Amino acid sequence: MTFESMWRDLAPIGRSSASGGYFRQPWAGAELELRAWFREQADARGLTLEEDPFGNLVAWWSPGSRDGRQGDLLDHRGAVLTGSHLDQRGAVLTGSHLDSVLDGGAFDGPLGVVSAFAAVDLLRDRGVTPGRALGIAAFVEEEGSRFGRACLGSRLATGAARWEDARSLADRDGVLLGDVVAGGDPTPWLDRVGCFVELHVEQGRGLVDHESPVGMASGIWPHGRWRYDVRGRADHAGTTRMADRADPMLTFAMTALAANKQARLTDQRATFGRVEVAPNGTNAVPSRVTGWLDARAETEADLESLVTAIEKLAGERADRDGTTLEVTAESVSAAVSFDDALRERIGGGLPVLPTQAGHDAGILQDAGIPTAMLFVRNPTGVSHSPDEHAEAGDCVAGVDALADLLMRALGESP
C-alpha cells in the first residue's frame, strides 16, 4: 500500500465531527482500532508481530528475507519466535506511537508509524534484503493523555518506569492501568535493538525557516509535569464576603499568571493546560483546585530555576489567600542529546534543530540505545491541535528520507 492510501485509511479513526480533532486515547475504541490496523499492516507484509506486557507493538522484518515471511506471532503470554533470526543484536528499530492528546492532530505519532511501513515497502522496491532485523514499533501511551505519564510504554519497556508503580495509575474515570493491560516484568525485546530512528511531524516552524521538508533533531529540552493542589474553604458565592473567603481559585489563577510571566522573562515554556475544581459549582467558592504545570527549558538548570520560581510565587500567594499549596512532581525528564555519531553516519546533510517536545526517542536514547529523530515540516508549527498539518509532498519526502536513513543504518547504500 502507498503512504497516501494508508493515511486515508487512518483519517476517520477517532476523529471528532465537532472539532475535527482526534481522540485516540490508549486502550479505548479508536486506539484499539489503530492497533488492529497495525496488526493488519504487519500481516499483509509478512512481518513477525510481537507485543510486550505493556501493549507496545513491534513488527519485525527478518534478516535475509525479501518478503519477511519467516516468523510467527509473538506475545507476552509465551509464544516463541521460530528460529534465531530475531535473536540477533544490532537490529534497527523505527516507528512512533498511535495515541493522541485530547482533541489532537492527525500527524503527531501516526505519521511515524505509517511512514515506517511505507519505508519498508520502498526498501523492498529497491531490492533490499536486510542483513539484520528491522522493526516497526508502535509505543503505547506516549502522550500520557489517559494515565498522565508521557512516554509510559517506552519507559516501562526500557525499565525507566517500574510496573509496580505504574499499575496503580488511574485515568479520569478511576480505571487503573493494571485493569486494562497485563503488565509485569519487561521482556527483553529492546535488548536486540542496535539503534532507533523515529520520524515525527515537527512541532514548531524550524524547517520552514530552513526551507526544507525534512530535518533531524539534535536533542530534546528537559521538561516535566507538576501537580499543584490548592486547598481552601468551600463557601456560598453570594453570602460570603470577599474578605472572609479562603478561595483556592484565586491562588491558582495568580499561579497560572506567574508561570506565564516567569517563562516569558526567561524565554522558556510554562503551561497550565489541565484544571480540576471541587465542588465545581457555579454558585460556590471551591474547596480545592488542582492544576497541572507543564514546564520546559533549554537546560536542566533553567528548568529547575523556572519551576522553583513558580512554586515560590504560588506559595506566597497561598499565604495571602489563606489557602494551602502542595506541589508534586509527577514526571521529570532530563535533557536528551541524540547520538551524534549515528546522526552523522545516516543523516545525509539534513538540517539539524532542537525540539522542546518529549518523544519515545528520548527515552530510548536515555536507555543507551543510539537514537536519531527525523522531522517532517509543519507549515504553521501548530501541534497538539486539530490544526496540526503537514503537506502530502513533505510526508512523501519524509518517507524517502526515512528509507535512506534506514538503509544506512542497515549497512546498505541508498
Automatic annotation (TrEMBL):
Chain segments annotated as transmembrane: none
SUPFAM superfamilies referenced in this protein's UniProt entry, alphabetically: Bacterial exopeptidase dimerisation domain, Zn-dependent exopeptidases
Keywords from the named record: Hydrolase
Family annotation (Pfam families): M20_dimer (PF07687), Peptidase_M20 (PF01546)
Coiled-coil residues: none
Gene3D superfamilies (UniProt xref): 3.30.70.360, Zn peptidases (3.40.630.10)
Domain Peptidase M20 dimerisation: 226-320
UniProt family annotation: Belongs to the peptidase M20 family.
Name this protein carries in UniProt: Allantoate amidohydrolase
